[in-house]
Amino acid sequence: MRTAEIKRRFLKHFETNGHTVVPSAPLPLPDPNLLFVNAGMVQFVPYFVGQSTPPYPRAVSVQKCIRTPDIDEVGKTSRHGTFFQMNGNFSFGDYFKEGAIDLAWKLVTTPRKKGGFGLDPERIWVTVYLDDDEAIHLWQTIAGLPKERIVRRGKKDNFWHMGIPGPAGPCSEIYYDRGPQYGAEGGPEVDEDRYLEFWNLVFMQYEITDVKSKEDFHIVRELPAKNIDTGMGLERIAAILQGVDNMYEIDEVRPILDKAAELTGKRYGAGASHVASESHPDDVRLRVIADHVRSSLMLIGDGVVPGNEGRGYVLRRILRRAIRAMRLLGWQEGPSLPHLLPVARDCMAPSYPELAEEFGRISQYAYGEEEAFLATLKAGTTILDAAIAETKKARKKKLPGEKAFQLHDTYGFPIDLTLEIAAEAGLGVDEKRFRELMAEQRQRAKADAAARKTGHADLSSYRAILDSGGPVDFTGYTETARETRVRGLLDRRGEPVEVVGEGDEVEVVLDATPFYAEGGGQQPDTGIITVSSGQIEVTDVQSVLPGLIVHRGRIVRGEVRVGETAYGEIDVARRKAISRAHTATHLVHQTMRLFLGESATQAGSLNAPGRLRFDFNTPSAVPPAVLHDVEQKVNEVLTEDLEVRAFVTSLAEARRLGAMALFGEKYGDEVRVVEVGDYARELCGGTHVARSGQLGLVKILNEASIGSGVRRVEALVGLDALEFAAREHILVSRLAELFRVRPEEVGDRVEQAVTALRDAEKEIEKLRAQLALANVSALADAAVDVGGVALVAVEAPAGTTGNDVRTLAQELRNRFPNRPAVVAVAARSGGKATLVVATNPGARERGISANELVKGALSGRGGGNAEMAQGGGVGEDQIPALLAAIEAALR
Known about the structure:
Layout: H1 3-16, E1 20-21, H2 45-48, E2 58-66, E3 83-92, H3 97-109, E4 124-129, H4 133-143, E5 150-153, H5 155-158, E6 159-160, E7 166-177, E8 195-209, E9 218-233, H6 234-241, H7 254-264, H8 281-301, H9 310-328, H10 337-348, H11 354-357, H12 359-393, E10 398-399, H13 401-411, H14 415-424, E11 428-429, H15 431-454, H16 459-469, E12 473-474, E13 481-490, E14 496-497, E15 499-501, E16 505-510, E17 512-513, E18 527-531, E19 534-545, E20 548-561, E21 565-570, H17 572-596, E22 602-608, E23 611-617, H18 624-639, E24 644-650, H19 651-656, E25 670-676, E26 680-683, E27 698-707, E28 710-717, H20 719-739, H21 746-773, H22 776-781, E29 784-786, E30 789-795, H23 802-813, E31 821-829, E32 832-839, H24 841-845, H25 850-857, E33 863-864, E34 868-875, H26 879-890
Parallel strand pairs: 1-2, 4-5, 10-11, 12-17, 30-31
Antiparallel strand pairs: 2-3, 3-9, 4-7, 6-7, 7-8, 8-9, 13-14, 13-16, 13-21, 15-20, 16-20, 18-19, 18-21, 19-20, 22-23, 23-28, 24-25, 25-26, 27-28, 29-30, 31-32, 32-34, 33-34
Helix pairs in contact: 3-4, 7-8, 7-10, 8-9, 8-10, 8-12, 9-12, 10-12, 12-13, 13-15, 17-18, 21-23, 25-26
């Protein structure tokens, strides 16, 4: 039975039994607390915990999932895969244990001809939670299972949760006995390769928190209603129904494995047993390739791009593991993904047709990552091999942590790859020292980042102020000035003080403030804080601790005391300009996604007065025509003068509304949503305009790469954009006047002028080369004999460029076919001297090296080889001494 048919039967069985078919959520669900969707129930969490009312009492889905903790186990067992699909049926306060067990038993044991899976009931085992006597009774009465095939297990195996706070409950797992050829008899407790778990029925009845591990968590309460959440691994049941040894051999994965075997000349399964854990290393690597290539396809398809953090790092890691596994199998013919990824697409496109439609974008990211990694692998492996040899020579068992850190920090060589390669060489790695060095580096980075917020001060002073008065009330969403109280003062060293005087630099904490603290890419407010006897000019505002807003500035008049009544006023013009930029960023973000696809997600931003910088994920440069369309669409939205509305709601409701959330940002149960009409909607804590028309104009200035798969656009907003447009108009008008053409013809005319100029420069270069070579014969005739070697040591004609100097040296050398010869040509450029030395075969036979002559004349500087070398960096007045040094070296 093909995988697609298994999926169809599962959905039909539950739809027939009153379940609503719900499409799969994308793998990177917009939940900042979850790296990827790792279970079928994730999109239903709000219904389980009572945050939202489910629109249906029963649901069924086939959910795309990624689980990262098992990456190192991929290929070694028949159970672990990075990407998998989870068949699931769900009940929201409708049926519970009895209904779940009955529906599951009917599907798996009903004959295939009648629409079921047709599994032999005598080969089915189940496990239940330790004290779940009810589940045991139901399995006996509904399925007729004997006691010996019902196994009690603890929290580690039979109490399910997502690994984060949320819904949880005891579960019952269904296993299939695949026979003695797969392992020992005795049930799941004895061998989980022979007894393969394929369906987990979770009886969701608790909400948990303080999750430390699979077994260490705290039950907060019972859920408002008892629910059912089941998960049947589609790949696992496919392996059973297709009669193959493991999930890597099913119809959606095996073709990728076969292609990898074909490319590397390996034969999968040659002489291996049915037990995955006893497989030949080559078979394990082939499975890794098949799993990781398919997983990468699905991740990129859902908008994840390779990166150094979070989701991007997971993708980068599995792509690189697949690439390296190909190299370990002997593949040395360049990139391998162009051969493998199309096979994965063809396997998965029948279920996910969007993969075929988006394959151009997907392959760009994957192929680009492989090219970059092959370069890293070449450099890093050479260094690692040398370090391994050195470690073995010293009779040590572990590679130094410093070396692993150097590979990671300098060459981008992942630690997991270092561990794998070292292990293959029979060595460990001093991971403890590596982690220490990584922690030190992170600490330094955090300290640098925090310096902006804390001024390197001891945080205890800030903490004391926060504890004394609670969180500062930010009122800047609705007002630009307010009366408040000075709660605390810190001097330039971060020490608390009671009073500060004129000229002093100070940090001020108010009970309430209209000043916006820098955050979310938005620059801080500036302004004035006035007290009865003094005034502070505020130049920076930071949220040093959650809930604590600190104003930094200088006393420009009088003095300020703790406890005084104060009046804070922000620079309104600056705030308005920043707010325009921030709203414009939301519009640019949404419009980029419209033109480039949902994967063009924000990777960073800066909202400053009148200008913005927006970083986003995309595999290649954005064509100028697309940038023009983006700019035009954004400005069309401005002309519609849409209302900009901000409101606070639950995270679940914000998700339902389609608000964009940024991974890595921390969100609470309540979030602030900013929407521009129905056009753009994001989670955002920043300040914005009231209507889109207030932006006036958005002008995109440029677009460029700032890293692999990340691009940046910069734009001007409002008056800054209008002033830029005015300056451009003046410039174009002036050029039109100079070239005597219409303004719309200026571009073509400038292009013609530049082309003519380049042609002229090439002609000048050619004439200069001819001039330099004009006297080659005369210069060769002037060679002097130094110890039997013909030496030509000359200064090139004025204006001779670097390339021409080398050409002149080569031409002179070629004039001596029958005797040893050395040519030294010096040239002047920008007040500095350049020296080129060339030797012919006769000179090199005598042991004369151009490289050694250059280094000798320039005190170790310069480089090249025995045939030709070059150096410089000294003053042009040293040319006679350089040529004399060459002659002296030959004597």
